[in-house]
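In the laboratory, one determines a bound structure by crystallizing the protein with its ligand and collecting diffraction data. In a computational setting the workflow is compressed into a single prediction: the sequence and the ligand go in, and a structural description comes out. We illustrate the idea with 2-deoxy-2-amino glucitol-6-phosphate.
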Amino acid sequence: MCGIVGYIGHRDAYPIIVKGLQRLEYRGYDSAGIALFDGNDINLSKTKGKVEDLKQKSEATISLEGTLGIGHTRWATHGIPNDVNSHPHYSNSGDLVIIHNGIIENYESLKKELINRGYVFTSDTDTEVLVNLIEEVQKSEGAKLGKAVQIALNQAVGAYAIAVFDRKKPDEIVVAKLGSPLAIGIGENEFFIASDASPFIEFTNNAVYLEDEEMAIIRLGKEIKLRKIKDDAIAYPNILELQMNLEEIEKGGYDHFMLKEIYEQPRAIMDTYRGRLLAGQSLIKMAGVDQHLEKILNANRIIIVACGTSWHAGLVAEYIFEDLARIPVEVEYASEFRYRNPVITENDVLIAISQSGETADTLAAIKLAKEKGAFVFGVCNVVGSSIARETHAGAYTHAGPEIGVASTKAFTTQITVLTLLALKLAKEKGHFSTSRFHEYLTELETIPAKVEKALEANPLVEIIADVYKDSTNCLYLGRGYNFPVALEGALKLKEISYIHAEGYPAAEMKHGPIALIDEQMPVIVIATNKGHYEKVVSNIQEIKSRKGKIIAIVTQGDTQVRELADHVIEVPETFESLTPLLTTIPLQLLSYHIAVMRGCNVDQPRNLAKSVTVE
Ligand code: AGP
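The predicted complex, in structure-token form:
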């Protein structure tokens, strides 16, 4: 939940590291720090607060010289956010300095041992224990930095992405990874280290993503050498050429990354179709599926595991897989699934959905299912992420970098991938005639343009947002495929505007929530013309008769609901199973505008981080 950046090369390290940290602030932003080596001395500055605060403090207090440095933006786990607990951390001698993303679970026992050997600690962090453990190994074993890091990490239990350097050896940085993401950017006689590629993409497209339990000794003028932490085996770097450009990272002229990403959905869905949806040939090609088709087709059941918005995409997938492919599906919160001793057999297929590919609970659920022999298929958005590498096979959502903490385009592209998969399996299982299959593929091709159309409601949504921006509660209702969308709409409003909101199956209202309805309660109802339209209309009448304020998401040209609702937002018509790709859009925009009007930090909401890498 932290962002780490490092640089060794021929340029000034300070500007590269600070800009890199700003790009990674979506990962954590409660404190930040930097350590630069100017050839003689380590100049370290760190502070509670944002990277901007670090900039002001560093430029006022330390020398910014040096072509080697490391930096960190934090999301506190061990030790409250304050100056002392922020990174980087020195070893007792002051020779070693480290940054760390992750958690060393056995740090207390290691700390006790080190205290018995005379070490003193200034912070409450597990990271300060790790850097002193490395120092102790250097001293007691006479080991070089690389070796000392390896030995120390073999004594540590937990997750980490670290970068450490030694004032006595200023031409190298040692990095290592287990569970937390770490990428190395390879330039002309320079190296960049970061939690993802966004800090160095403007300098190089060549990157190595470290595998779990791998480390690298990065030395100027030398090839990158990777080693396995456990057995010192040499590992050969798999250098990827990244298809990502700076502009994609920047806000592209939108006020917030979230709004930019909402408007990127037509392109993101099209990119997710690319090379997979071949309507002309009545074909769906998914490399990760084709290789394992028998395994997936003969599954007893599909278990979907995920967290947050990805879990909502899993719920939509349950409706699609059971309705179209007739495969039994169970959708599980990864955090519950991993600990409830679930029954998993080798005839089960587990689908793990994750935007970041780093969510700890989802990763653990995957490992559990693999141990029990299930086939694990991943749906991820980040190339090279831990979940992508941990699963047997998978399909990437090509949403591009999602910077806003509130997930939007990842949600619709997850549903897109899962819809393609369900349709493919339905066809293979003979549940679809060729003509119906073709009809479906043709309709899918229209979705990006229909999302564009749905986005045109933005000005109207902004007006409606202004009416309800001071609400304290809000209810979201949907039936069938749109019940999960109601849950997602409520989550979006909660996480960025801090208004308490709940999503419910519309028919559940009478079993309790209807008691909440009065003239203060805005109720967002998804009432598209497919599926259970008439039943939703009667739910709307129940709300109306209790003076609830109704904002209805309807199919273009709807007249009946328009009579009943206080506000209607239209989306284009499509197949019932595809409506979630459209009905989500106005809910994303509504939560966005309400949050902006309430002055909330839309891209970095309080108490939240983009990827939750600890449980
Ligand atoms: C959604 O807006 C939130 N950021 C959060 O619920 C998120 O969906 C959840 O943490 C799962 O993240 P993942 O998709 O990266 O695994």
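The chain has a mean pLDDT of 93. Keep in mind that any predicted model is a hypothesis to be tested, not a measurement.
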